[in-house]
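Researcher: Predict the fold of Kojibiose phosphorylase.
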Amino acid sequence: MKFCVDTDKNNSWYIGTKDYNSKMINKIETIMFQGNGYVGMRGVTEEPQLNEKRDMFVSGTFDAFPSEVTELPNLPDLLNMVFQVDGETLNLKDGQVKGYHKYLNMKNGELTREFTWIINHKQINFKFTRFVSMDNYHLLASKVTISADKDINLKIKSGIDGQQSNSGTQHLMEGSKRFYEGKFIQLTEKSQQSKIEFVFNSMHKLFVNEVLLNDKPYIKMGRRQIFENYDVDLAAGQIFQIVKYSNIFTSIDTDVKDDDLAEASVNCLKKSSWANYHELLQKSTRAWEKNIWKKNLVEIQSDDITPQVAINFARYQLAANTPHSPNMNIGAKGLTGEGYKGHTFWDTEIFMLPYFIFTMPKIARNLLEYRYLGLEGAHKKAIRNGYRGAEFPWEAANPSDGETAPLWGSADIVTGEPMKVWSGFIEQHITGDVVYAVMEYLNATNDRDFAKKMGYEIILDAARFWVSRLEYDQDHERYEITNVIGPDEYKEHADNNAYTNYLAHWCIQKAIQVVNILEEDHPDLYVTLDKKLDLAESYNDWISHVNKIYLPQPNEKGVIPQDDKYLAKRKIDVTKYQINDQISEIFKDYNLDQVNDLQVTKQADVMLLINLFDDYFDKDVKLANWNYYEPKTTHESSLSMPPHSMIANELGLDDQAYKFYRWTCETDMGVHVGKSVQGMHLASCGGIWSMTVQGFGGVRISNGKLRIDPHLPKAWSSLKYQICWHGSIVKVSITHDEMEVEVVGDGIEFINNGQEYQVPDNSKIEVDDFVPEKVKG
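Model: Structure tokens for Kojibiose phosphorylase follow.
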């Protein structure tokens, strides 16, 4: 694998660079992101630079601006520090830089940058370290260490800079600026539309040779700014340190009970500042270990360290971007940049949730509860579009908002006119994706409490939408779904997209099963939900419609039509568009209307259907569709590679499976700049885990049962991982010819190569006749 950062063969938690490259600033900012799920900030430098994206966000703090859709506001900069050495402002484009090294410790989220700056015949050594606390979600801490070979004068400006924006849009209105007790500075602001209050606090401690200085700062306040200024004379060889403690609180935080948010937040920072930087980092490190790493072991043995680095990177980013409240969800780019405005897509349910379901089910439940809380918004969207039930938004922000997708996108290369974004109107498979995720969670966890409180209602309400969405074709005497966008977003206004139709049919089947469960086992809950959802009438509709829904079948060659017209469209060679840099190369030659008339697919569509509904299709059909659709797929979307890798792995196409695995690992960490400058592709992070554990590790849910059918890449000698299944921890160790399954907790059953195995409580077994399917070339 080719990464834009260095790796260390002895430390798979390290990513770094010893090359200061101004062209890669935004890329490095993205992948060296730091966060804890509440707050996130890009890996920018402390001293401001040109062309940087100085973004910091707090999860769930959405705000709208007139004529624009809601988005996470870019918050005041708490990181900034400006250094002057004998009147020269620190800027790495000036003077000479030696020994540059910037690296992220993914085990605890600490970011370090060090170098020697040579200017005016003086060598000044700088070391910057910082972290976002996983122990105290509101806290950020940073430390700068400086020494020089000659006497120098240091001037330092550090504070809170509220002059940030979302690409020019300013969401926050300035409140008060205060200076407490000669130590703490504070800026308060409020979002313009959502009226969320924000409080930002900082304080500094200065040391020379570890002796605390009592220098009083000069405070300067400007518009949306409050800074502390220090002036320090430093003798040659002396070591200067400045430690900056900062925190953030908002009026929607659920862990703050004090009515005076400004006062309460300062008191919290006072308590934090009693500890030194190292002590706070240790607490955060322990929280990472306890809450994250102990719950999702993945160990890859290979001569190449990069696969282990990639899976560590993926899990780090998912942990750093996942909110802790069910009122919030993971944006497609999390908190790592302005891309997609912080909105949640189907990326969470299909590409990220498997990781949480199998490793941290409590977080998975939170993410699904967000969809339950979003039923209000889903009802709004359904009613607006003339349907019943819950039509989940393509882009979601606050749960009750409903659809938040923008109406217009980029310009058409032929007409020059802005193109309408149809996804918010007709990319409706998201409603089925949510139900799919609910069922995967229930199968893996057996969480009956969630089912009764939320899960059943989500399934039933979604089915009400689907049955209202069906259209009866009198000529064929069947129900169809026309005018949609499937996963392949190159095909707008498609009729009978196979993925959408199968998912709708499956959702209605699940709703019928749920009604039967309620009537038999939970009659009181049935009565409650009947009042809310009119179950008696809905059930009759489902029964009368479900067997008449048109499900596109494989043709004589075994190919499932992606939609009614796809197989009749003109074919072209898409090889030159299959370059893994996430840039829409095809739109340099065609506009969207033209692409719509070609047999060209953006991402896994029929292949995703086959991957999710693994039991529906035999291997001959899977191979036929692979051979037909993969050569026609540009893989422009980062969502395309994981399902392709997993299907190729199942089919024994080892080289293809590993190619798509490698591409996914390179989506953000690769050498190309691509779209990563606007933020991470968090679905790719989920995909890396899924390809590793569900693909190569063989973990699947088959008809509600756990299946483990591994097939390791040739380049790996072994794989170890652990998952949660029905409340027990399952540890799996695999080589190319052996498999061991250990259970911590209650015993489990699993299927391997069609045979069922039982593992008793707190014990382990070896699968003696484990023979992975041989690679077919």
